[in-house]
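Morning!

This is the sequence you dropped in the shared folder:
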Amino acid sequence: MNKAKTLGPLSAKLITALYEQNKTLFGVEDVLQTTDLASNNARKLIHDLIKREIIARLKPGKYIIIPQELGDNTDYIGNWYIAAREITKSPDYYISYYSAMDIHNMTTHPITKVLITTPKQEYRKKRIVGNIAFEFIYINAKSIWGITNHWATRSEQVRVSDLERTITDCLYQPKYCGGLLEIAKGMWIQKDTVDYDKLLGYVLKFSRNIVIKRLGYILESLNLLNEKSLIGLREKTNNKYYVLDPLLSTEKTYKNSWKIIANISPEEIRKSITT
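The structure's back. Tokens below.
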């Protein structure tokens, strides 16, 4: 059934006005301003539109118009990253890790969930909206830097870690991006776009030796940085040994100059970028 034909005059007026204002995402206030209804009647109208699958609820007080060509799609949430922005409590959030890699065209596999870093503790670490999993990762507000705005659609922006901050974050917690080889492949895909001076500055500012060592190991394996710069980076490392990829076994390791427990060989890293 074409639900557009079931719209009454008031519902049709609301949906048309929202489209004209380019508001596929809207709140109760938009309904009040468009229809001049009292608050309780506006909420009844919203409830009726949800019931008839004209709109879907993203969170209490926030709704999205379901494109009619999708038919009976009650799980529709629109653009995943815009949905993430809407359901996150803090305006200082940012799309991060593998989701940020996806935005920066660094991925080799489709995303199955959205990762959001936020300085505000969410009620739950994960939330399911429209069958899509949104996972929240907590960070101290002082650690939020290297963030940029990304046009998720022609009219809507979201906050995302920039390319170099995305690499830095992923090197710190490979579990959120599928492991070290995924990071290496993503870096290789964008090797001509990465600002290596900025990246080196970021990892030093991030101030985690494990990030410096993992980065140095990848850069050396893929020959992405000259020896002079690698020596300078190596001088910033300490004598503590960390595991290169915590998602993999350390039963077999490889000698290296980064004082890291290398459970992936440089040859494996080079091979991964060709597959």
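Headline: Residues 80-141+149-161 form one domain.

More detail when I'm at my desk.
O.
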